[in-house]
Amino acid sequence: MRIPFVDLKAQYATIKGEIDETINAVVESTQFIGGERLATFEKNFADYTEARYGVGCSSGTSAIHLALCALGIGKGDEVITACNTFIATTEGITHSGAKTVFVDVIDDTQNIDPERIEAAITPRTRAIIPVHLYGQPALMDPIRDIASRHGLKIIADAAQSHGAEYKGSRRETLGDITTYSFYPGKNLGAYGDAGMVMTDDSELADRMRLLANHGRYDKYSHIEEGYNYRLDTLQAAILDVKLRHLDRWTEKRRSHAVRYAEAFTDESIRPVQENPHCKSVYHLYVVRLTDRDRAMEALGSRSIATGVHYPVPLHLQKAYEYLGYSEGAFPNAEKATREILSLPMFAELTNEMVDEVITALKEAVG
Ligand SMILES: Cc1ncc(COP(=O)(O)O)c(C=O)c1O
Prior knowledge:
Elements: H1 8-29, H2 36-49, E1 53-57, H3 60-70, E2 78-82, H4 87-96, E3 99-103, H5 114-120, E4 125-129, H6 140-150, E5 153-157, E6 165-166, E7 177-181, E8 195-199, H7 202-212, E9 216-218, E10 221-222, H8 233-263, E11 270-271, E12 278-279, E13 285-288, H9 292-301, H10 331-339, E14 340-343, H11 351-365
Parallel strand pairs: 2-3, 2-4, 4-5, 5-7
Antiparallel strand pairs: 1-8, 6-12, 7-8, 9-10, 11-13, 13-14
The structure holds pyridoxal-5'-phosphate.
């Protein structure tokens, strides 16, 4: 049986009627930028995340950049984040003019280690970007505590964690600004690039809306230069349809995660752990293996697709050579990089498929 890593076609098949109808309606309306459908999705997704305001963006990457710009963070400033995230997190920092400062992660969850944040703070630090990696929120209480003691802003990168909970609530996962990606393979995925920024602060929301739309307050009146970071209406309408199904899809993901976890009981296959305060939405299901590359190859030869998120931590990427980090700087993330393997994870997986992955992986490491 061929088992893909994600199967967007299988998902589409379950909602084809609603999606096709919505796409047709948007095309018929010819309202491709702005309008009611965009406003409705912004409101619905804000309600979903328990934030007060949502401003649609062109991607999760532009969302992060927009958040930093709106907070006035730029040249001469430093922003702290985890070294094992996708490069979009730190591109946003660099594009704002600020400098990225990396910290290591907690070994068993692979999320930023709050105990290491404080040592990375300097007089130039302005913000912390916790990344809710793999769908699991970072430990927000200690991060909030550090931020408030040092007067720092929190931008939560929630690109992978739509609907995740910290201490029993979605709201508790939010930062001063929270950024989402709706990249097609995400738990809530568009049919192209899309993202959103969330905040409870009406001034910040207004500022992000202005900056995302060329700094304009009417058609040709520009307070300042901004960006074209808008979320287009077709994507918003598609996302609004899919949002209705998201909780059901998340429950499926969680049940697959339980099935995997119950099967991986010995030391040879060690799942990344869910912290007791966190409810992960399992964007990715990641296990740690002594010989990851061999297992990956063995699964591949049985037509089971897997991934590595991420194979090289950012501080060791060529793009960040100029920051001057060397190997050994962040041992937890570096060790994990050699061991992690992401297994197939999407709502439409069947129990039979999950069992086949389990059997194949056990045989590969046995
Ligand atoms: C942690 C993280 N941050 C940011 C992004 C950027 O999102 P996008 O691809 O929508 O620009 C992604 C995903 O691609 C991500 O996984």
